[in-house]
Amino acid sequence: MKRTHLFVLGVYLLSSCRAEEGLNFPTYDGKDRVVSLSEKNFKQILKKYDLLCLYYHEPVSSDKVAQKQFQLKEIVLELVAQVLEHKDIGFVMVDAKKEAKLAKKLDYKAFEEAAEHFQPYIKFFATFDKGVAKKLSLKMNEVDFFEPFMDDPMAIPDKPYTEEEIVEFVKEHQRPTLRRLRPEDMFETWEDDLNGIHIVAFAEKSDPDGYEFLEILKQVARDNTDNPELSILWIDPDDFPLLVAYWEKTFKIDLFRPQIGVVNVTDADSVWMEIPDDDDLPTAEELEDWVEDVLSGKINTEDDDSDGEDGEDEDDEDDSDDEDNDDSDEDEDEDE
């Protein structure tokens, strides 16, 4: 509806403005330049223009108001096509129903609808600029999946895509190797644990030591990007000023220093890597070894629980021994 309003507004402005001295508003010359794209003329049209602008639309209903609105859109497109004709920019229209196969081949609608399933938690971007596409190494009608902090994207295979294919791929790859906890999606991210735990790293990006530690985390993530079992959750304390004291009390750590640990999501029990001081941060190799110990279960949040239980049992045994000794002493007294 908003897009329709913009088209109507454009026609109204063009028809109502008077030409002033030194400023001429273009008027439609009556020549048809906007082409209805089909499978037959698709390749021919692509070769004809340096840049092709596509208007993808649903079938026009028999309602007179809807038909009138569509005609206004066509007039605006024709006028724009007329103005930009000398720059080799073409304008085409695609009917989603009449050219369903071609519409799928062009993918933007499927991409747009797939994005609705994940926003605002996962960001979707589309570019219609050749320079930007070239910079990103994007191919025509290709969808690339960028994982945070990774150098190279992953192209979704088997194009052209349907909405279902894009959604399925994103769901399979939506847990990055390293991701930042954001206030707007912190609950959703926290619930997305692996086997009941999160590997959590605290580092202030604005702090020199925190920045250095974050770069080490990125290196570990890049080296292990193909490991589906690894997902490190980075928290910048500056993003959550009201939670710093709570986290320090709960996890018994100092958040003025970089920290990394494994946290149980059910009871907040945690184990943290020993980092002697800020001047002796772990190397990427040392951090990777620690992560491997976590993933293998060698380091886990249940270790201290079992120690505590054993300690309680030992205390109970000691108490029972004391009671037995007391009873024996009383028996000796009675015999005497």
UniProtKB/TrEMBL annotation:
Keyword Glycoprotein found: yes
Signal peptide: 1-19
Compositional bias annotation for Acidic residues: 302-336
Chief place where the protein resides: other
Protein keywords: Calcium, Glycoprotein, Muscle protein, Sarcoplasmic reticulum, Signal
Record GO terms (molecular function): calcium ion binding
InterPro entries listed in its UniProt record: Calsequestrin (IPR001393), Calsequestrin_C (IPR041860), Calsequestrin_CS (IPR018233), Thioredoxin-like_sf (IPR036249)
Complex and partners: Monomer, homodimer and homooligomer. Mostly monomeric in the absence of calcium. Forms higher oligomers in a calcium-dependent manner. Dimers associate to form tetramers, that then form linear homomer chains. Interacts with ASPH and TRDN.
Similarity field: Belongs to the calsequestrin family.
Protein name (record): Calsequestrin
Organism name: Carlito syrichta (Philippine tarsier)
